[in-house]
Design goal:
The complex is a heterodimer of chains A (449) and B (463). Chain A has 15 helices and 19 strands. Chain A is an alpha+beta fold and 449 residues long. Chain A has three domains: 223 residues, Uridine Diphospho-n-acetylenolpyruvylglucosamine Reductase, domain 3, CATH 3.30.465.10; 106 residues, 2-Layer Sandwich (Alpha-Beta Plaits); 88 residues, ACT domain (Alpha-Beta Plaits, 2-Layer Sandwich), CATH 3.30.70.260. Chain A has an eight-stranded antiparallel β-sheet with strand order 15-12-14-13-17-18-16-19, sandwiched between helices. Chain A has a five-stranded antiparallel β-sheet with strand order 5-6-10-8-9. A four-stranded mixed β-sheet of chain A has the order 1-2-4-3. In chain A, a hairpin with a 5-residue loop joins strand 8 and strand 9. In chain A, helix 12 packs antiparallel against helix 13. Chain A starts with a helix and ends in a 17-residue tail after the last helix. In chain B, helix 1 runs antiparallel to helix 3 and helix 8 packs antiparallel against helix 13. In chain B, a hairpin with a 5-residue loop joins strand 8 and strand 9. In chain B, strands 12, 13, 14, 15, 16, 17, 18 and 19 form an eight-stranded antiparallel β-sheet that branches. Chain B is globular and about 65 Å long. Chain B folds into five domains: 84 residues, Uridine Diphospho-n-acetylenolpyruvylglucosamine Reductase, domain 2 (2-Layer Sandwich), CATH 3.30.43.10; 118 residues, Uridine Diphospho-n-acetylenolpyruvylglucosamine Reductase, domain 3 (2-Layer Sandwich), CATH 3.30.465; 110 residues, Alpha-Beta Plaits (2-Layer Sandwich); 75 residues, 2-Layer Sandwich (Alpha-Beta Plaits), CATH 3.30.70; 40 residues. Chain B is of the alpha+beta class. The chains are: A alpha+beta (449), B alpha+beta (463). At the A-B interface, strand 9, helix 7, strand 11, helix 9 and strand 16 of A face strand 9, helix 7, helix 8, helix 10 and helix 15 of B.
Chain lengths: 449, 463
């Protein structure tokens, strides 16, 4: 196959990767070919060649989200680095069209330089590509305020395993022409099609940005705050909860060092808006701190905001610098009537982790009911079983292993039996990936062949 | 053969309509020139009955279509030949309201505005607000991925739907999505929203509710013409301000509105008015409105009015809300066209739209969701006049071509339905449509559910 690929892409366009390289580590595939098409047509041609050879293809952007889902069958890695660059940034319309391999960091910076704002800040932002982030369906601290890439996505161009290229949606902020297949591709982890180009809507860069850090050493007070903040109906650009020690260093000196002490849960709030609007949000939030008095409070100075959010965004890297750890994701309805359940969930999960002799840090989105358990090493079977039992104890909770090293995921279902509609999902995959070669097994297990 | 007896047993005899005088009201939706009388109309009382009805029809091999309030504007709910309409009018219960989690679970036949009314006591609302919101149903909104004036800030229906219960065209029931964040697997909910009832029939939905903003500021600005109004829109957006809605009405609309019961006191000498609204915190919206007013006053604005209170705001909106009704007074039929262009091309395309109206000799006015680049040219006509109808359709074709040529597309919120199906090739190539068809066939392989809509037949894909 490599000869055919090299004929198509040139000698530099396809190669075999080292056994100990990143691809091998992330995909658990000891031998794989890499192909680097330079446009969507080549992308489709690569897929056709792989389909004819019956080889499985894994699309690869920046390699930042390859640990999501199960370990796919992988014979060929299709890197999108050759499909990079902004196709069109229409400032007046606040839209941007970019090739899938464009680095998200470049995109964010280019947009910002023209006074606009792309509210995407997932972990791994520096290396991640826009195509990868859309395929993974992930966002970072901005998720609580602006949603997932899905909510910004206006259209896509894709390559399919029958060699076809297709477009859906467009570049208009309002569009109901045809089926919005881009919403299906979002979060499909490269199992349906290869994204070649995406279009996104943009926002104006806010005039003012402010960050408020509230440290709680008492989970009941944390819940009182979560409840009061919800009742106030305030809109925040970011609203997360992180373990204090993960923020240590980043300008939290003097009195603010208290926020980073062990046992401190820090609510980080970011407000965007006009000068007076942000001032109003800060003031109204402070009014809520009566019953929910935090142990420490800081309005982050200008130069501390960015490092704080960076530490927050890369919280997992803070826990697992070598990437050998795992992230478990527990989702739940954040409120049970007029009560916040976050504190109780955190307390229970922390007790289970400690009981299993493990260490963990927490990262939560209080408004959304998402708790991430950040583990410096993959969970033992016993811990996993206990957490699953905890998740099952009440209806409306779901636990999955969001991310873990390939060596640990190999042979497991990291989605822990939460995947619905297997037959329909397989039929959709067959419709869009007729050869069945795109990241097989990453979401739904392959049918025995 | 029509399994009338079986259908009656499922839903009760009184909920099966088959006499011509009963089925007559179902022969068209709000696009009145396309008509087809259904063989029968069935009104199931819930998901289980809908599933049983669908199973009976599928077994009989009869085509069928789901229909909400019939306010659709693209003939999306037009009955297939010899087919049956499944009307959702009896399924309009609010099943659960969870104000703390900001969720509402509803049956699909509930009216859009009814959801917001129920949520209002908890300081919440359902954000999509199509003009027909007092009657149009949530099921229809989901099918069409409906928008409205506030889509500019809050996004269309797809952003506000978390989970669905649907009946598949073979009668099986499927639950998609979850009120929880990040449900595992493919986003079937996101996929199904906007498929115009060609993949499944939505029977229940879990909706995301939004906090009612504490403050609203409304400005009404009058300009010499649409071009100036659009320039003001661009100016406001370029300044970084974030209005929640930007509605423009042209001179012909103003004249029709001011001559109707919905007269809102718009300046009659104005060639366009712009309603600009900000919502959010009190200080923020006051600041934004002041700035927007200053920016607009630097342009050639004929008049500027800022709502003093709720009553004043409703008065400023009255004309806009009544615009389609006012246009409808002018002739027996009204065709509300819907197309989108990049916002920066709105002024130019609006001028071209008026020109097309003159060329074809049709009575045309224009209402714009200007923030979204969404045009609604309204054409008043009499569909019994064959020549006038022909000119109206010709004008529509010209308008769509002009919009696509300007980088736009066929529909922003009304859908493709049957009306625009054969224009799809202006926007999509053969392989684009083939992928959409492949997905539709996964759900609706026998094409019994709402056939012939949205996706052009294979042989019609090239012009």
């Amino acid at each position: 196959m490599i000869e055919r690929l090299q004929r198509l892409l040139g000698d530099g366009g396809a190669w075999e990767v080292a056994r100990d390289g990143e691809v091998a580590r992330e995909l658990g595939a000891p031998r794989a070919l890499v192909a680097a098409p330079r446009d969507l047509e080549q992308c489709a041609a690569v897929l056709r060649i792989a389909a004819e050879a019956g080889r499985a293809v894994v699309p690869w952007g920046g390699g930042q989200h390859q640990r999501l889902g199960n370990v796919p069958r992988a014979d060929l890695v299709l890197v999108t680095s050759g499909l990079a660059g902004i196709v069109d940034h229409d400032e007046a319309d606040q839209t941007i069209v970019a090739r899938a391999g464009t680095r998200l960091a470049d995109l964010v910076a280019a947009v910002r330089a023209r006074g606009q704002f792309l509210p995407l800040d997932p972990a791994g932002l520096a290396r991640a590509t826009i195509g990868g982030v859309v395929a993974a369906g992930v966002n970072g601290p901005y998720r609580s305020g602006f949603g997932l890439p899905r909510d910004l996505l206006l259209g896509a161009r894709t390559a399919h395993s029958d060699g076809a290229r297709a477009a859906c949606g467009g570049r208009l902020v309002k569009n109901v022409t045809g089926f919005d297949l881009h919403r299906l591709y979002h979060g499909s982890l490269g199992t349906l099609a290869v994204l070649g180009e995406v279009s996104l809507r943009l926002l104006p860069l806010p005039e003012r940005e402010a960050t408020l850090a509230l440290g709680f050493d008492d989970l009941e007070r944390l819940d009182a705050f979560v409840l009061a903040f919800r009742a106030a109906g305030l809109a925040a650009a970011s609203y997360v909860l992180v373990h204090g020690p993960l923020l240590a260093g980043n300008g939290l000196e003097g009195g603010a060092a208290e926020l980073a002490r062990d046992g401190m849960f820090v609510v980080l709030l970011r407000f965007h808006g006009t000068e007076r609007g942000v001032g109003e949000s800060l003031a109204r939030t402070r009014e809520l701190l009566g019953r929910a008095a935090p142990a420490a409070e800081l309005e982050a100075p200008e130069d501390v905001q960015a490092p704080l959010w960076l530490a927050c965004r890369e919280a997992f890297a803070g826990v697992s610098p070598d990437g050998g750890g795992a992230v478990l994701r527990l989702t739940f309805l954040p409120h049970a009537g007029e009560r916040s359940v976050l504190g109780g969930v955190v307390e229970s999960v922390a007790a289970l982790v400690a009981g299993a002799g493990a260490r963990a840090a927490f990262y939560a989105e209080p408004g959304l009911g998402v708790l991430r358990v950040l583990l410096p090493e993959p969970p033992g079977e016993e811990l996993l079983a206990r957490l699953q039992a905890f998740a099952r104890r009440e209806e409306g909770r779901q636990l999955v292993v969001e991310s873990a090293p390939a060596s640990w995921r190999q042979g497991r279902d990291v989605l822990l039996g939460t995947l619905p509609h297997a037959a329909l999902a397989r039929a959709l995959k067959a419709a869009l990936d007729p050869a069945g070669i795109l990241s097989p097994g990453r979401l739904y297990p392959e049918e025995p062949r | 053969m029509l399994p009338l007896e079986r259908l009656r047993r499922i839903v009760g005899a009184e909920h099966v309509l088959s006499a011509p005088e009963e089925t007559f009201p179902y022969e068209c939706d709000a696009l009145t020139w396309l008509r087809r009388r259904p063989a029968a109309v069935v009104l199931p009382g819930g998901t289980a009955e809908t599933a049983a009805v669908v199973a009976a029809l599928a077994e009989a091999g009869l085509p069928f279509v789901a229909r909400g309030a019939g306010t659709g504007l693209s003939a999306g709910a037009l009955c297939p030949a010899g087919g049956v309409v499944i009307e959702t009018a009896r399924m309009k219960r609010l099943l659960a309201l969870d104000p703390w989690n900001r969720l509402a679970r509803v049956e699909c036949g509930i009216a859009n505005a009814e959801v917001s009314r129920a949520a209002e006591a908890h300081g919440l609302f359902f954000a999509p607000d199509p003009s027909s919101q007092h009657v149009c149903t949530i099921g229809g909104n989901i099918a069409e991925n409906a928008g409205g004036p506030h889509t500019f800030k809050y996004g269309a229906t797809a952003r506000h739907v978390l989970a669905l219960t649907v009946v598949l065209p073979d009668g099986r029931v499927l639950h998609t999505g979850s009120p929880l964040a990040d449900p595992s697997g493919y986003d079937l909910t996101g996929l199904l929203v906007g498929t115009e009832g060609t993949c499944a029939i939505v029977t229940e939905a879990t909706l995301k509710l939004t906090p009612v903003p504490p403050a609203v500021e409304t400005l009404l600005l009058a300009f010499r013409g649409v071009e100036d109004a659009c320039a003001a829109v661009q100016r406001v957006i370029a300044s970084g301000l974030e209005p929640c809605t930007m509605e423009v009405m042209d001179g012909a609309t103003i004249a029709a509105v001011e001559a109707s019961v919905n007269a809102a006191g718009y300046p009659r000498d104005a060639g366009a008015v712009l309603i600009l609204e900000f919502d959010g915190g009190g200080a923020a919206v006051a600041e934004s409105a002041e700035r927007a007013e200053r920016l607009c006053r630097e342009l050639e604005v004929l008049a500027c009015e800022r709502a003093r209170d709720r009553a004043h705001r409703l008065k400023l909106w009255k004309g806009r809300k009544g615009a389609f009704g006012a246009m409808g007074r002018l002739a027996p039929d009204l065709l509300v066209q819907d197309a989108v262009v990049p916002r920066s091309r709105l002024a130019e395309v609006s001028a071209r739209v008026l020109e097309i109206g003159r060329e074809q000799g049709v009575r045309l006015s224009n209402v714009l969701h200007a923030g979204d680049g969404n045009l609604h040219p309204n054409i008043s006509y009499d569909r019994r006049d064959a020549d006038e109808t022909r000119r109206v359709l010709e004008a529509c074709a010209c308008i769509l071509s002009a919009c696509v040529a300007a980088g736009g597309t066929l529909s922003g919120e009304h859908g493709i339905g049957l009306e625009k199906r054969d224009f799809m090739h202006l926007v999509y190539g053969v392989s684009d449509v083939e992928k959409m068809r492949a997905v539709r066939d996964v759900f609706n392989g026998r094409a019994l559910l709402n056939p012939d809509k949205v996706l052009p037949a294979r042989e019609q894909q090239t012009p």
